[in-house]
Amino acid sequence: MTPPVDRPSTTATRRAVLAGVAGSMAATSGCVSRLRTVMGRERPDPVTVTIKTVPADDDPYALLIARQLSEWLRAAGINANVLPMASEELLRQVLVNHEYDLFVGRYPDSTLDADSLYSLLHSQFATEPGWQNPFGYANLSVDDLLARQRTTDGDERRQAVADLQSTVARENPFTVLAFPDVIRAARNDRYSRFGTARSDEALGMLQLHRVDDDADALRVTTTDERVTSTLNPLLASVGRVGTVTDLIYDPLVRRYRGERYPWLAESTTWVEDGVLEATLRPDLSFHDGEALTADDVVFSYRFLRDTASGERNQAAPTMRFRGRSTLVESATAPDRRTVRLAFGEETDSVAKRALTVPILPRHVWTERTGEPRVGGLDLGGGTTEALVTANIPPVGSGPLAFVSATRNDRLVLERFADHFLETADTPELPDAVADGAAFEELVMKHVGSDSSAVDLVDSGDADLTLAGLGPGVLRRIGQAEELDLLVDRSQSFYFLGFNTRRAPYANPRFRQLIAQLVDRRHLVQSVFSTFAAPAISPLARTDWVTDDLAWRGRDPITPFIGAAGEVDEAQARAAFREAGYQYDDQGRLLGV
38, 288, 329, 393 - which has most CB atoms within 10 Å? Predict the structure, then answer.
């Protein structure tokens, strides 16, 4: 029997940690500078803001958003500059080492629900690396609301989520900007049903139909080189890569079109209060031929909580799936096909979110618990080999298995003949995915630009662009007779993130004023060419969004100071002065 997963920290411990975090923030929030200024010993320096983001080749929108934000900030007297950097470097600086003022990014999780906010905002994650609370945000009231929505149901939970959204909109640790549409190009002479295969769902690849019997390979093109260089499902640097790793790794339960379906687990049953028993399908195996058993499942839940496997004083949690992994208090394996997961006070519906994490092969990942060996890089504390490995070749149990990868060129996956979709009847699954892939191979080709990606599809050398084309290629797609334009409503959002660990961003009033310099409607028109929807709440595309935070032309909490994308400079500066800030003779905003 495998030992249980360690229980998470107690509430008292979390509050003690939070008190330390909050105290540290208070110490850096400008009080000392204000005191020195009053005493006449030191003049405040002008506020200088660096907005970090990725270059245009990595994201067609993020850099444009950052540049527009910098213009708006400068109109209010803030010395703002934009610093683009490669995705891996940005994520290391922002998500691992927390070295930033502001950053523009796109939240990678496309399966948002109310509990997604737990890992994004809870103070227990404020010092951890990864997408869990990258803002260092600490608020006891928010923590209580996050806990309440986990332990209540019905109207009580809905009220907690409503209060949570309102509080976050006022506190503004990050500013939601817009939910983009995902633009793709496809041709239907070899495969069809691309229009029904959503870009943010890995299983969309499985519902394609083969039109040409000789088309053994589905050929996809992408501008994201990460799909050829890293296939680690635990890394923060996902996005389009996450769609691929979701095809390589299987969970106990798979989410598809908003519903959950049994996947590696043929059944799940609540055997007692707070204890769920999952029975694995028979004869499961990993791509390397090793059997997948309950011990691998238990190992996975332990590993997501601490990739050092308890071998250090400091835990090294994963950069993804933390909110879901913290739901599980213990995991045991009574036999090879049975897993018992014990939860805390969470409701059953929330607890089942934990069933959607990837199951890892213990014989592969147990060798990655040591400290990473990457020369010349400060990787931050609590890091292990598991959190930096490229994980090529990957070994999973999913419907597609790894064949080869050439950096900056191509990735090849093949249909896994021993997957349960290929070997067993699955009447409980949707017909669209129950028969597995319609292709024998998935060949993913990396190109350097959106136009090159479209050219490959138009010439017949590719069948589909993976995702994320910019609006600059819309006319090109529309004019090509052989191409179909696919536009999906994305479930993930672009945002402006604040580092609340440092001044002046630790001050919620300052963050609110920055948010008032953002014209979302103008961003949608100028950056996204209207292929996006402005939003205030991260839950805007769920049924959890409240009426008062649904977009109706303006932000009711932090309305734009200006009109038609132009900041009203006089009004903006008056707002900063009213908040206690001053300007120097050159019109520059001064710190406090």
Answer: 329
Strands 191-192 and 174-186: unpaired
**Quick one: average pLDDT of 57-68?**
91
- Determine the straight-line distance between the first and last CA of the chain, rounded to whole angstroms: 59
Q: Extract long-range pairs of 469-472: CB within 8 Å, 24+ residues apart.
A: 469/60, 469/183, 469/184, 469/185, 470/60, 470/61, 470/183, 471/60, 471/183, 471/528, 471/529, 471/531, 472/60
From 467, 360, 512, 496, select the one nearest 60 (Cα to Cα).
467
CB neighbours of residue 45 within 10 Å: 12
Taking the whole predicted model, whether its pTM rises above 0.85 is answered as yes
> 382: pLDDT confidence band, cut at 50, 70 and 90?
low
Helices (H), 28-153: 31-38, 62-75, 87-91, 116-121, 140-151
- Please name the fold of domain 11-172+493-581: Dipeptide-binding Protein; domain 3 (3.10.105)
Q: Report the distance separating Cα 563 and Cα 567, nearest Å.
A: 7
Residues near 199 by beta carbon (within 8 Å), at least 6 away in sequence:
182, 184, 243, 466, 467, 486, 488, 490
Give the three-class secondary structure for 355: helix
Q: Which residues contact residue 453 at a Cβ distance below 8 angstroms, ignoring those fewer than 6 apart? A: 185, 221, 222, 223, 447, 462, 465, 469, 473
